[in-house]
Amino acid sequence: MAVMSRTFNDVDLSDPKKAADYVKRKALEFGADAVGIGNIERWSNAPLQMDPKQIMPECKSIIGMVFRVERGSLRGVEEGTYFSNYSAMGYGGITYLYMPMTVINLAKSIEDQGYEAIPMGHQSDWRAIDNGGYMRKGYSRPVRPGQASPDVMIHLRIAAYLCGLGEIGFSKMFLSPQFGPRNRVGIVLTDLELEPDPIYNGPKLCNRCMACIRNCPGHVFDVEHPIKVNLAGHEVEWANIDIEKCGTIFVGAEKAEDPNYEPSYYGDIHKGYKPGNWSPFYKKPRNLYNTGQAVCGARGCTRACMISLESRGVLQNSFKEKFRRRPTWEVDWSKEPEYSEGTQFRPEKIIGDKAD
Q1: How many CB atoms lie within 10 A of CB 13?
Q2: Which pLDDT tens digit goes with each residue over 17-72?
Q3: Which has the closest alpha carbon to 229: 238, 220, 218?
Q4: What's the angle, vertex CA 55, arms to CA 91 and CA 119, rounded to 5?
Q5: 73, 254, 290, 301: which could join 171 in a potential S-S bond, CB 3.0 to 4.6 Å?
Q6: pTM
Q7: DSSP annotation of 50
Q8: Is 66 helix (H, G, I), strand (E, B) or coil?
């Protein structure tokens, strides 16, 4: 029996319009929930360390894909009983498992036809810039004059915007007309010329309701000094974010008044942190899929935003029942816990007249 293989160069992609249709159908077939295309000219003003042409100088097109965060993966955090599912399935699982398979398979389908393609997702652990977009000192250096320092990391939310997939909300979260803020974004860079989609001009998604700002447990948004950028001729702005504070709130921690506060929420890593009223954990849970540790459950930037968008009826992925069905909860760490009836603890062993 003969060896079987994929077929190569059997699809004519010389027409940008037909090629775009082919690529989009493949992206959806491989698992993307929405797909759009931007031509490389839209990135002409990209910062050096976020410039796609620094990675692929001959890049002609960027394919952007939206991967939904299931509404159900937020249910356990909303109820206060099952936090790991959002980090595992709605966060890390998409980033490190599902999305890579899709972008890799799409890149393979393009390379089968003789065009180069680079699959990219949220995996950016090697990037040379920090969370604020600034070069990390002493990390890496350019290998040729005029080039960026490795690793370049394309701004994925901006990429999704430039591919026509939706808006960037005031919280800086990417909002798609299908799912609102419930998205992860993956992209493919290619030297294949594809017909680009227009910048999103559908029903307005972010109406500056400020639900994200009010409901963020750490109040990390500076609305008085928003960030303003020009993206392919469109003026876009979002609230300035205290990235360091967001990272602390994200995992459920807040600074204690006493810098030597014990026991620290971070264990022996960082002293002086205690659990916030949005965390039921005495100590920070371990990471899931490397970075998934979203104890705050995106309370403001995703859940509150989603509730607002759903109440306005502007999202295509609508539901039979509203998301918030019970009052929001908070943990009062000044009191001893009251365990519910049915909670079972391991019985204490009696050794002599002492409990073990």
Answers
A1: 18
A2: 999 999 999 999 999 999 999 999 999 999 999 999 999 999 999 999 999 999 99
A3: 238
A4: 40
A5: 301
A6: 0.95
A7: G
A8: strand
Instruction: Report the C-alpha gap between 93 and 259 in whole angstroms.
Output: 35
Token digits for 45? 């003003």
Name beta bridge partners: 38: 62
By three-state DSSP, how is residue 315 classified? coil
- Measure the CA angle with vertex 172, ends 227 and 225; round to 5°: 25
Q: How far is CA 186 from the centre of its chain?
A: 10
- As a residue count, the chain comes to 356
**Which residue has tokens 């005031």?**
170
The encoded tokens of residue 178 equal: 């299908």
The DSSP secondary structure of 148-212, one letter per residue, reads: PPSPP---HHHHHHHTTS-EE-TTS-EEBTTTBT-EEEEEEEESS--PPPPPP-SS-------HH
Between CA 100 and CA 196 the distance in angstroms is: 23
Between CA 16 and CA 21 the distance in angstroms is 9
Which has the closest alpha carbon to 180: 70, 82, 296, 17?
70
Name every residue whose Cβ is closer than 8 Å to that of residue 73 and which is 6 or more positions away in sequence. Answer: 85, 86, 89, 90
- In 103-130, which positions are buried (b, 16+ CB within 10 angstroms) versus exposed (e)? bbebbebbeebebebbbbbbeeeebbbe
Query: Which amino acid is it at 204?
Result: K
The rounded distance, in Å, linking the Cα atoms of 263 and 273 is: 8
Q: Is 295 exposed, middle or buried (0-12, 13-18, 19+ CB in 10 A)?
A: buried
- The stretches of the chain forming alpha helices (DSSP H) are 16-30, 52-55, 75-79, 84-85, 93, 99-111, 156-162, 211-215, 243-250, 305-312
Please report, for the chain, the start and end positions of each structural domain, with discontinuous segments joined by +: 16-137+148-312
Instruction: Tell me the C-alpha distance between 111 and 115, whole Å.
Output: 5
